[in-house]
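Subject: mismatched residue count in predicted assembly?

I count 501 residues in my input, but I want to confirm that the predicted structure covers every chain. Input:
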Amino acid sequence: MPDQGPPSPKMTARHLAVRYGGKLALKDVDLDIAAGRVTALIGPSGCGKSTFLRCLNRMNDTIPGASVTGEVTLDGEPVYGQGGLDPVLLRARVGMVFQRPNPFPKTIYDNVAFGPRLMGLCREGADMDAVVQSSLESAGLWNEVKDRLGTKGTGLSGGQQQRLCIARAIAVGPEVILMDEPCSALDPIATAKIEELIDSLRDHYTIVIVTHSMQQAARVSQITAFFHLGAIIEVGATEQVFTAPAKELTQGYITGRFG
Amino acid sequence: MTIGEQHIVKSYDVELGKLGDALARMGGLAETQLASAIQALENRDGELAGEVVGGDSRIDSLDTFINEQAIKVLALRAPVADDLRTVVTALKIAGEVERIGDLAANVAKRSLVLNQLPPVAQTRSVSRLGRLSLAMVKDVLDAYLGGDAERALVVRDRDQELDEIHSALFREILTYMMEDPRTITPCSHLLFIAKNLERIGDHATNIAEMTHFRITGKALSEERIKCDTTASLTGMPGHDEL
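Triage response: the counts match. Full output below for your records.
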């Protein structure tokens, strides 16, 4: 166990509930997201794990008919409601990587530089070059693309595109990175590279990952939360959840005995 | 959705079932081997002892089968939670049962030597010790196969009694040898037999602890009180493998 002591929460959710139109997708969820750890959200389709993830950077705001109640905080500051963080600034602090790699139809360089430009984080030229390089290095992609930064990002392989999206998220200096099934469209080798990347990013970022792969959750996370029917059934140290889960429902799900 | 006893993938259940069946057969064989070894000792029955010595290979081949089957399930199914505990404990318990089989065969082998020597009165006490260890083995295997953590803990507690009886018996046989040096040869063999039977209790205790882990997910950490005082009598290590 490399992790010592109780981690302090980077983000918290209290009584979080989400409705899509009349449908209650998430009901009264409390969860702390530990700083500097990887938290995996697992559960069957429609259990609310992606909905929960999207609440953390207000992605649900963009869905018509979605309403969010309850409380989410980032470093103790409210994310929703009056006095809540500005969604654009929030999303710079809480970045997101999606299921399918979605690079912009621009050059590799411009993909990474897009966020810093939009946010006015640095000047073009040497400053921007440095940000692009360090972001691509952090995403483990630099050596593969350094000689073709001017080519289209969409021309890369799937795994490279996903790492480019991670570099793009890192470029604006986020504190939290949300990943919604980042490897589901990738082959095992590209998946292993992303998992290795997640492990190395943990030193600088707090990561929340939604995954359908039990083994991936077991491999990359330190904390696992199991969602079922819009509620959290169990949350605990990943090792504990996968060797001796406290709840029968969790056990049934992770062992494949869910009927 | 509901949680069932069965996995969605049925062949997974078949593979886990094979593991359980093999362990049940192996445990049953070890019990029979031990019971026969004790009977052969008591009755100076050379034929029965010979059967025990020859029968050990069947336990060994089941141990090999369980090892292969467990590795297969680990590689192909990546078991988690209770399934993981079932596979890992099956692997470890098979090792313990295999040792019990070896020790029973060793008891039978030594009984063949004893048959060539004049009878010693303490043989009866040693076979009583054997029946106690046999009862522990039987109960702990029943607890494992029946998924009964409480019963496993009861077996674990009984090991102390076995250790105490063994220590008392050790002293008794030692005194006997000192009184009549002509008994040294048979009594030495009897001491080893007693030690083997005491070791069987230790293996049963290990199985009890793994049974508890398999069922509850909690490892028993607390150290048991050791009542084997024979080491202090002889200066020998208390848990020498024979």
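Chain B has one domain: 7-216. Marking this ticket as 'not a bug'.
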